[in-house]
Amino acid sequence: MQEVNLREKYYTYEIDAVIFQLQEACDFAWLTKLGKVFKVFDQQDSGNLSFGVEQEGKKYFVKFAGGKPLTYAGNPQDAVNRLIEAIPLYNELRYDALIALLSHFEVESGYVAVFDWFAGECLHSHWLFAGEAKLSHPESPFFRYKQLSVEKRLSSLDVIFSFHEHVEVQGYVAVDFYDGSILYDFVNDKTKICDIDYYRGKPAVNDLGENFWGSSRFKSPEEFSLDAPIDEVTNVFNMGATAFVLLGGASDRSFAKWETSQALYEVALRAVSAVREQRYRNIAEFKLAWDAAKNV
After folding, report:
1. Could you tell me which of 212, 182, 187 has the C-alpha nearest to residue 198?
2. In this structure, are residues 28 and 35 in contact, taking their beta carbons and an 8 Å threshold?
3. For residue 227, which of 201, 208, 199 has the smallest C-alpha distance?
4. How far apart are the C-alpha atoms of 228 and 88, rounded to whole Å?
């Protein structure tokens, strides 16, 4: 491992096959003990820095909090606290569609969580394909996903909906779920969920107002309103919004942009109603209606 301060403001690290920069110096001696680093994810505004690591032919995804990535404006200790608080979520919500947490531990410079590696690509790879490139670049994972058949995308959505039905049964609600939480393996047509760090136990409320966690493309009205409930009805909206992103025109929820049946469109449209009382009561009810509409 080599640390070089190329510019007074940034610290550049070269570890095995990767190079990345941080705003502050950080010790990565612990990382080299986990194996050979073959990939780095260093453009997250969450304060986390993640790595792909291989040891004895086995690959792992390593999430670290405690450094200060270039895109992070917060306090590294806040990121450390969030990661520590997220650990129980990966255990309590363990599911085949969720990336598997293998271990976690404290290091001198922060906190580390080690997950099983999944050979999928993030559908919101903003560090590689920002803005229009996400939607149109032939190598963009989101663009390639949208070129899949409707049948494959419906199967992918089934995985997402089933996982969130499981979340609901376990007494939790999804927070900050968006296409950046979706990984897709284009070789094996498998979908997995990652980054559930902000999910919460019920009951939950919006304690941040307009700045409540999440992408505006997926957030319900209550996720912009201070003290509003964040519950199953909120997550119904999130799942409907996900359907429009993956099968339609995202924020343009017109039928003209919708790629499958009228029956499924009507289910998704009800799910994203601005009026909570008009949505399905929970994910289970939404999924029942969705599955019935697939057979129409």
Report:
1. 212
2. no
3. 208
4. 25
